[in-house]
Amino acid sequence: MTLKVSIIVGNPKPKSRTLKVAETLVEKLLEPGSYETTVIDLADHTDEIFAWPSEKMAALNAGVASSDLAVFASPTYKATYTGLLKAFLDRYPANGLAGVTAIPVLTGADLTHSMGPTVNLAPLLVELGAIVPGRGFYFVAGQMDHLDQIVQGAADEYASNLRRLAGIASSLQPIDHPRT
Amino acid sequence: MTLKVSIIVGNPKPKSRTLKVAETLVEKLLEPGSYETTVIDLADHTDEIFAWPSEKMAALNAGVASSDLAVFASPTYKATYTGLLKAFLDRYPANGLAGVTAIPVLTGADLTHSMGPTVNLAPLLVELGAIVPGRGFYFVAGQMDHLDQIVQGAADEYASNLRRLAGIASSLQPIDHPRT
Amino acid sequence: MTLKVSIIVGNPKPKSRTLKVAETLVEKLLEPGSYETTVIDLADHTDEIFAWPSEKMAALNAGVASSDLAVFASPTYKATYTGLLKAFLDRYPANGLAGVTAIPVLTGADLTHSMGPTVNLAPLLVELGAIVPGRGFYFVAGQMDHLDQIVQGAADEYASNLRRLAGIASSLQPIDHPRT
Amino acid sequence: MTLKVSIIVGNPKPKSRTLKVAETLVEKLLEPGSYETTVIDLADHTDEIFAWPSEKMAALNAGVASSDLAVFASPTYKATYTGLLKAFLDRYPANGLAGVTAIPVLTGADLTHSMGPTVNLAPLLVELGAIVPGRGFYFVAGQMDHLDQIVQGAADEYASNLRRLAGIASSLQPIDHPRT
Any idea of its EC number (chains A, B, C, D) (predicted)? Predict the structure, then answer.
């Protein structure tokens, strides 16, 4: 089975370093050939992000919602995700990302807003029904020279977490067990 | 393999309804016979919770850290977890719950503090390295008559999430793949 | 001195109930004739909110930053403020609302997201340097029939808080006291 | 009128640097002779913090609740306030700090948890009805050599904020205006 992966970038400027960080994280995490990635650079969609209805936006939203894994990446604006990323997520109904495994990524200028991915972006994704398998990932933009090494560390932690979670899955109540 | 499960209850009063909610959640989630549960009712340990060092507390902390699954349950005090639960978690070093799958549970008087498990308790557990497989669970204490049904709904969602996560685990980079 | 008041509404739909709630709050809080209010309905500016630079948006941002009091009001989307409101705030530089007294208002369908104004919108405004004189105000949209009474209660609390704060201001170190 | 000031320190170790930071902040903020300070070092009260009822604890709680200004200071444990500080605050009923101006202070090892005072401690105090006149104050413990200078900057910002707030208080609806 080919895993369906989405990368959603909330930077109002296209082709940002934030996109590069997210792409690297996916490469470090998943086995080559086991997945297909779709990238949504929201900078390309600012003209329609508040249009309602919008077939184009609806297709983008649906694609992410049907992903196995989605990386939501944004520069840190005011200690949290951008309005652009939030505007994309606002288009979902309640629980619109149910069952999607999601990794929250914020890039920032220094360590000051390190807590942002875990206290702001992760709860937002979880509110939509997404599953965040560990802490959010905060990347200091000035560390691009060490991108591979830093992202490898994060990927190793997510991989370890996912293996631990899979171990628990094997002890779950069977799907068809009688409910009380 | 027998799954190791811990339930940690942060209610200063012992044998609370909060404990009952947590126990029910574990029963609904896991297959009978597949796990062993240890309950830590922190109300029994208020006299040593701030003692340092304490062999007894250290043993409790170590037991939880070596669990596969831990349910952290607390009544809602001031919109969040109790100081008693936090005092127990404060005894861990950084990353002290690494790899433990954790479910945050808060009980409250009404819906006003529904966001507490997701925005307050979940990020705290994640900060310690725990993995929270979905939203936090908030239970309105007045609904004890419908405990089974409500907890079943939450358990079904966690079970579904864990199966989805297990699916991703099968596409991870092999543990021994060459690192860049 | 005439107080300068701004109301900023983050609803993608214009002339919303959220705007009505914010206007009512200002009326209940301030003495008639003592202030002038500017309303920014961000629904009217979705076409330029991501344009950079934009003279029109810059003028709106500057007007709010020079206000004495600003009410930031938004419907609750995904347990927090809208992407539209965030996109407006993202246009500010760091500390761009320094010294502005700000009241965070969220309207929502039920009590589930009551914590949103205090845990999400207030910290965002404070990050920008604004001063929030009390808890955020959450209004359940179904209560429009009791709008006056409910908003009066909130206004009374803010008024009481502001009087308490003024009492402390009289004991501050003089502005020109020697610094260490 | 003499201002009543309380300093509450949530460090399980007594006479901490965190206490020193809080004391310095009060000195920089208020005019000498205009206030009286009571210090509560919670390290001295761990044996009774979970006792219920407790006359001693009740007296401490009441003293803080009747303060004009209270500084709540804690080392950063797990990205937020300590369980000890929370246990003290848990003893209040809902709205137990109504009308108290409160400054949240966290000390930490580095900038990683800078957001803690604003996203964790401030909302907790606000939930209790306290009024936080600006952002929370985060102090990096390694900067004790520059304590005076750094705290002076924070004090200047709070002082400026309080003067701005006092300006708004003069335009409030009169206390006895007719309610709708």
Answer: 1.5.1.38
Q: Is the ipTM, as predicted for this complex, more than 0.95? A: yes
User: Rounded CA gap, C116 and C127, in Å?
Assistant: 16
Interface test with C, best of D119, D170, D172, D177 (most C CBs within 10 A): D172
Q: For residue D32, how many other CB atoms are within 10 A of its CB?
A: 8
Instruction: List the one residue out of D26, C108, D135, B134 whose CA is nearest residue A122.
Output: B134
* 3-state DSSP of C34-77: CEEEEEEEHHHHCCCCCCCCCHHHHHHHHHHHCCCEEEEEEECE
Tens-place pLDDT, residues D67-87: 999 999 999 999 999 999 999
Give pLDDT, residue D180.
60
Query: Quick one: pLDDT band at residue B51, thresholds 50, 70, 90?
Result: very high
Does the structure show a pLDDT above 90 at B85? yes
CA distance D179 to B128: 50
Count CA atoms within 13 Å of residue D48 on its CB side: 13
* Residue C140, number of CB atoms within 10 A of its CB: 17
Q: List strands edge to edge, sheet with D35-41.
A: D35-41, D3-9, D69-75, D101-108, D137-140
- Is A173 close to B28, i.e. CB distance below 8 A? yes
Instruction: Give per-residue burial for A55-78: e unless 16+ CB within 10 Å, then b.
Output: eebeebbeebbebbbbbbbbbbbb
Q: Provide the CATH topology of domain B3-169.
A: Rossmann fold (3.40.50)
pLDDT at C126: 98
C127 and A79: CB-CB below 8 Å? yes
**Shortest CB distance from C111 goes to which of B110, B116, B119?**
B110
Q: What is the value of pTM for the model shown?
A: 0.97
Strand C101-108 relative to strand C69-75, pairing: parallel
Compute the C-alpha angle B110/B114/B115, nearest 5°: 155
Q: Where are the domains of chain D?
A: 3-169
